[in-house]
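Morning run. Coffee first, then this:
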Amino acid sequence: MRDRREALAMTENELAAVLCIPTEALQRQETGELHITLAQLRDLTHALGVSLGYLFKGAIAEIERVPCRSELVPPTEQSDAVFLLSFVTILYRMAGTGKLARAEYYLDLACQELQRSIAKRESA
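And here it is:
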């Protein structure tokens, strides 16, 4: 989104005005902190002169780089140290994509899994 906007020499303020949203919302959308609605997505394709498929090319490539949940093996199946090392490696890769919202999601999953594991050990 940002790359196409910049290729058109369009400022954040200009694109935000076309989309009828605050500039701050556009900035958050470009960084992935704020989701784009379907209506905004349609308006965005028109404003940038691209197809919907064009916008999803980057998303598809990004999704393929992000590990799936099955890569996060719970600590009950391997040592905590190995689990934490693999988890930190995954977060490092995701942070490199600039999509920390996904890293936050996986961190939440890992915390839930660790809490279940701790509760299971304490009840045994």
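Residues 2-62 form a domain with the 434 Repressor (Amino-terminal Domain) fold (CATH 1.10.260.40). Good start to the day.
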